[in-house]
């Protein structure tokens, strides 16, 4: 396992980040702790969670696991999502975020988090108001570094421009979705991150299971997250994604590598990515993700994967080398 600086924050993190969203909903406490321990044995020090995962119970799990080794791990959590039915139980206003952070710290059994993410853009909150709230989190020592998840490049740059103008803490880390099946962040977000020195921990490297080989011999699944979860149905249930999955699986087979390993290695190979977020729900899933650390994406492999899942068009019709 290698360790890398997380953008300009300088916080050193493992090159794989363990995403805990599957705790509770897909693994019980004992199974979750076993996965956590296996990840730690493999050298993973970076764990991502959120207040809304299983209504806070995931944070409670993780808090109990890290209690005796808090200084050895890097913890990221998030605020924005609804944690109740009240009008201020969600969003990025000062009251909502303060309640969210305090709740997360209590469930995680810690007095600080290493990275605090805004889980989603909130158009109702002025940039200065938002940044002042985040500044209080940082100056109080409860948050070490700031991040945004599911923000566009424009929204991120605008927020950091305001931070620079006001002399307030800036956003250091991004969390976009990124996989061979979903390459849209290559258009603006990843070039921005590279140019601005931002850390990137991308989520869903396996496309919610699409790139695991499960769908290599069927047009559309009858069961599973891609059918049963409306969020994943919206993202992946078009026929083209299953065509992609079949071709990807066949190519992985020709290389003699498991699909999950190849998919994760492809994300790891992008120099703009600090650490992809893996979400194993059993030890075999974790093993396949760890194998990606030793799998080289050669130029020939990258070229073939671009044929299977073509990169998106650029944001404009001029490259940086055009004069």
Please write out the topology:
Layout: E1 3-5, E2 12-14, E3 17-19, H1 29-41, E4 46-48, H2 57-66, E5 74-79, H3 94-108, E6 113-118, H4 127-139, E7 143-149, H5 153-166, E8 171-175, H6 189-196, E9 199-200, H7 225-228, H8 230-236, H9 239-255, H10 259-268, E10 277-278, H11 283-291, H12 299-308
Parallel strand pairs: 3-4, 3-10, 4-5, 5-6, 6-7, 7-8, 8-9
Antiparallel strand pairs: 1-2
Helix pairs in contact: 2-3, 10-11
Q: Could you walk me through the main structural features you see in this protein, from its secondary elements to its overall organization?
A:
By secondary structure, this protein is α/β, with parallel strands linked by helices. It has a domain at 3-175: Alpha-Beta Barrel (TIM Barrel), CATH 3.20.20.100. It is 40% helix and 12% strand. It has 12 helices and 10 strands. Strand 3 (17-19), helix 1 and strand 4 form a beta-alpha-beta unit. Helix 2 crosses helix 3 (94-108) and helix 10 packs across helix 11 (283-291). The chain is globular, with a radius of gyration of 19 Å.
Q: Roughly how many Å is the radius of gyration? A: 19 Å
The average pLDDT is: 94
Share of helical residues: 40-55%
How many H/I helical runs? 12
The SS-based structural class is alpha/beta
CATH class of one domain: Alpha Beta
Strand order of the largest sheet: 9-8-7-6-5-4-3-10
**Low-confidence runs (pLDDT<50, min 5 residues)?**
none
The CATH topology of one domain is given as: TIM Barrel
Q: Strand content of the residues, in percent?
A: 5-15%
The CATH superfamily of one domain is known as NADP-dependent oxidoreductase domain
Q: What general outline do the C-alpha atoms trace?
A: globular
Secondary-structure element order, N to C: EEEHEHEHEHEHEHEHHHHEHH
